[in-house]
Structure formats: C-alpha cells, structure tokens
Amino acid sequence: MKPARLCEITCGQTDARLMAPGDRARGFVGKRGRGWLLEVHHPDPARVEPPCPHYGHCGGCSWQHLSYPAQLSYKAETVHRMLAAESVPPPVASPSPWLYRTKVELSFGASGELGFMRQGRWNQVCPVDRCLIGPPCNHAALQATREWQHLHALPGWDARNQTGLLRWLVLRHSSTTGQWLAVLVTQGEVPAAELAIELTERGATGVLLARQSSTAGAVKPDSVELLAGNDQLIERLGELNFELSWRSFYQANPPAYLRLLETAKRWVGPVERLLDLYCGIGTIGLFLEPGQLTGVESVPEAIENARANALRNQRSGRFEVGPAEEWPDLSCDLLVLDPPRSGCHPKLIKRLAAEGPETLLYVSCNPARLAEEMKVLGQRYRLERLQCFDFFPQTPHIEALCLLRLK
C-alpha cells in the first residue's frame, strides 16, 4: 500500500476536512486524494473561528470555519463547476444558519457519552452539551437525559461488543409551532417514565420509548410506547399543515424548503396535470396545487401519509405505491422529480430522454449526481432555470431547483 506523504496542500488537491477553499497548508495526502490537515500557514480570508467547542471532533457539520457568505459563494461555485451552467445565481440563504435542523439522532456511547458519532469513527461517540445546528430544544433534552442516565447509572451502547442498554435519543421539532418530540431507543428495560416527566417539564410535546432487539447501527425498533403527551406534531408549510410522527420523512429545514417551493410555484404557474415521482408524503404536489395530481412513491408508509395530508388540507390527489421507474404513463403537463441523494433510477432517466413530457421540475440534493443525469437528459431537454437553496448551513451540501423544457 502506498504510504501517505507529507506535502503542501490546497483544498482543490485533497478532500482534507476542515480546509477552506483558499487555504494553503501542510498535510498528508494518501490514496484517492484523501487528506489529513496538519497546519494552515496561509489561511483563506473567509476563515472564522468555529463557535462550536466540539467542532472537528463531532462528525456533524464541517464548514463552521467559513463565514456564512463565503459558504454560499463556494456552494454556488461548486454547482457551476458540476453542471457547467452559463451562470449560477447566488444561493438563497437559509432563514437561519443556526438551530435549523428539525430532527437529530443522538447516540449513547460505551463510556456513558451522549452526543454524535466522532468523525471517522463508527464506534466512538463525541459527547456534546448542545448542537448549534440542531433544534432549539436539544440543549434542554440533552441535559435532562444525561442527568437521568447518570442518576440510574445506565450504560450506553458498546458498538464493538454490542452490549449496553441505551442506544439513541431522537428529537423532532416543529419550526412553526415549537412542538417537539423526544424518543428514547433502548436495547432493554429502563425507568423511562421518570425521563418522560423530566422532558415534559422542559417542554416536550410527547415522549416515546422505542424498544429494539436488533444490534444494527440504525434505529429499527420492535415496538414503540407513548409515555407522555402526543406522538405527533404539526409542521406548517405555507397554507398547508402536516402531521408528523418521529419517523416521518420531512425536510430538515422547513423554512428554507418553503422558499424553494414558493420559487417553484412562481416558475411553473398554474398546472393542470402534475405527475410527482418520488413524491414522499406529497409535499411538492400538494403545495403546487394542480388541477390533477398523481404521486408515486416506493415507500408504503409515505403514501399513507400523503393521502392523509391531502385529506387534512382539503386537496385532491391520487397517490400510488410503486417504483418511479416502473410508472407506466409519463404523460402530464409537469413532471416533478425529487429523488434521494443517489438520484433517479437510470431506467427512468433513459425513459425521460426518450419519451418525457414537455416540462420537468427537478429538485436535487446531490448536484454531482444531477450533472451525470444531465448528460442523458440533455439529449432532449435544456436547462431553462436554475436556483440553489441552502438547506444545510455549516456543511458543503446544497439543494438545486431546476426547470427543464424540451429543446
């Protein structure tokens, strides 16, 4: 194996974490350009002091060392380079660059830690007192849970030996109503009723206990028990109300998502027939309010939620379970694509390049993947409009909204 070498590095030469695009530094470079930063001797002028004391150790955000305007600028440059677009307007900023995530999943460690997984370590937890990009309730919830854990001397989870009791603390918060849910995931019986009292006294709308037998490194509960309050909360998106459980899929930054949806609605105007592939819980289709809405999603629970959301908001729509690439009829006035980070199924991209409708509205959380798909879609479509939105401040991630029309 070729050893890592010590050398002068720049951000463009290596994927070393915690580097700024304009930094000149010394570090190690190994296989496939993976880098380890040693020291920065000519810092990027946009560098700032990260406010989080856990920064660099926690595996959460990686851009706190950049000013927020610089983050937006570098994200626009990245999208411009990936998509080879003639021009990329400045990204629409998140309404708040801090305390914006509406859901976080905190881990318990083998030595009693409660926090996030340590950067680059699958079996080590970085203890945190609060998360600066998590929901506003996270500090109170962490404090109450840690005090309860220590009072009863409850062991966390040893991922290497697969032993322990406490696995995760999941928090979900509504950005519009302020309601929040707390879910304790355990590998055995614990005095959770006492924790429920503490959390409700600190403002929790609902507290749940999820029991899990699987030793996998993901939340897969066998049963869920409501300990206090409600097991749902309300999130508002413009005129729409969405009832969410702790496991419902929903955008992590609803105020930023609302700005994207409002832009999309201005771009497309009134729509008669809308086909929403990868529709999730129906958010985009219901927000655009077409004359005829069809939503397709492979996850049955999401389709159940989409149907319930349509009824709750007194809007009509047909929602069906199935893979997007297998949907038989692509005829519509507007086809909406909002796939996962892996992008659309290649079979669907080929079909669209051959028989797609006149207009596509594509919401991409992975511009690199979108650029690959545009090599095929570009045979039939032109990119008419592009706007980026920052859903994840303090990280390199960016959301792109694209309007494509037949050439």
Distance from N terminus to C terminus (CA atoms, Å) equals 49 Å
Percent of residues in helices: 10-25%
Shape summary: globular
What percent of residues are in strands?
25-35%
Order of helices and strands: EEEHEEEHEEEEHEEEEHEHEHEEHEHEE
Q: Can you count the beta strands?
A: 21
Oligomer: single chain
Helix count from the secondary structure assignment = 8
Radius of gyration: 23 Å
- What spatial order of strands do you see in the largest sheet? 6-5-4-9-10-11-12
Structural class: alpha+beta
Mean pLDDT: 92
CATH homologous superfamily identity of the largest domain: Vaccinia Virus protein VP39
Number of domains: 3
List segments where confidence is low: pLDDT < 50 over at least 5 consecutive residues. Answer: none
Assign the CATH topology of the largest domain.
Answer: Rossmann fold
The main pleated sheet reads as: 7 strands, mixed
